[in-house]
Amino acid sequence: MKMLPLFLLAALVFVGANCLYVIREIDKAVLLTFGEVTNSDIAPGLHFKIPGVHTVRRFDGRIQTLDTNTESYLTAEKNYLEVDAFAKWRVADTARFYTATTGDESRANSLLLTRINSELRNQFGTRTVHEVVAGERDLLMTRVTDNLNRYALSELGVAVVDVRVKRIDLPDNVSDSVFARMNTERQEEAQELRSTGLEVAEGIRADADRQQTIIQAEAYRDAERIRGEGDAEATSIYANAFSKDAEFYEFTRSLNAYRQGLGSESDVLLLSPDGDFFKYLKNSDAPTP
User: What are the pLDDT digits (tens) for 134-160?
Assistant: First the structure.
């Protein structure tokens, strides 16, 4: 009788270990009845099963990462590219996933890897190097993801979240020739830009020279007009002054001539004393200023 409680406890432990199971929030699971899937949507929590009748297969329900090996793909220009890519996937249909892979994630990765390589080869083969690297890279990845996702859902029961290229390299035997061609193209582009710049610069210089000539001509014209107007006004003033007192005007002009001609002690003038220059110096009847 003393062994009965121990026996009951052992029986309860046995039943609990074999009849109860727990599904975590991060898990996906299927319930098999004699090897056939009878429940492919087991909710998280504690569940009951019949030992020997039911079998539970659990899978990781989180997003998985598949790193591909570096592969060579031929572009539309017949250039090989070394491509390293990766994919993100998760189990979407547990029943189909178990049927296709028996729940083996490595088998799922192997099947997906073959399909990824095929899709990348098809997409790279219709595009140039520039389109693959920069021009249509996002479009290429989107199409690879969509095509792969249709296959994966229908055949493997997994959803492909994304496919991305980590690195694209040229093979060593091609990179030198591609670099030389790119260098030549850049030199041609630089030369074209220099020629265009020189052409624009010559046009700017020609326009500046033309504007300079026009400005100088207009300034000379205005200066001559102003000078002519000034001379005319001066002549008019002189004429008016002369008409008022011709003798006084002539005397004033003579004094200015004496001041300018005899203003320095070193000045020497050889003139006849009877000339008109000394008329007012000799004539005592000259008007007093």
Answer: 777 888 888 889 999 999 999 999 999
CB 158 within 8 A of CB 143: no
Distance, CA of 281 to CA of 285 (rounded, Å):
10
Q: Within 13 Å, how many C-alpha atoms sit on residue 52's CB side?
A: 1
DSSP conformation class of 147: H
Superfamily of domain 64-170: Band 7 domain (3.30.479.30)
d(CA 83, CA 204): 50
Which burial class, exposed, middle or buried, applies to 80 when counting CB atoms under 10 A from its CB (0-12, 13-18, 19+)?
A: middle
To the nearest 10 degrees (0 to 180), the angle between helices 105-125 and 94-101 is 90
Minimum mean pLDDT range among 6-10, 219-223, 244-248: 6-10
Confidence of residue 289 (pLDDT cuts 50, 70, 90): very low
Q: What is the largest CA-CA distance in the chain?
A: 176
- Residues making up the chain, counted from first to last: 289
Put residue 103 in one of left, alpha, beta given phi > 0 → left and psi -120 to 50 → alpha. Answer: left
Cα-only R_g, the chain: 54
**pTM of the predicted model as reported, rounded to 2 decimal places:** 0.54
Q: Domain map of the chain by residue range?
A: 4-60, 64-170, 187-244, 246-289
Q: Which of 61, 107, 109 is nearest to 86 (CA)?
A: 109
